[in-house]
Design goal:
The chain is α+β, with helices and mostly antiparallel strands. The protein has one helix and four strands.
Length: about 70
């Protein structure tokens, strides 16, 4: 966790630890080799971290684009 804290400090971002039981939304495009790799964070809600990760230039609006994955 120290690496994440250092990165946050370097860029002036607040560090917010995420419990291991929480989930991220991740797209299967992440495994495709597409670039760039993208991440977007909304405020955490319930058992979700608020993080959404995908690869490629386009963010799909398809309801099944992101799959839940435990951290």
């Amino acid at each position: 966790m120290f690496v994440q804290q250092e990165i946050c400090r370097r860029y002036g971002a607040d560090f917010a630890a995420i419990p291991e039981t929480h989930k991220v939304g991740i797209s299967t495009t992440v495994l495709s080799g597409l670039l760039p790799l993208n991440g977007l964070r909304h405020s955490p809600e319930g058992d979700t971290s608020g993080w959404y990760i995908w690869a490629g230039e386009e963010l799909s609006e398809s309801a099944d684009f992101f799959q839940p994955l435990h951290i």
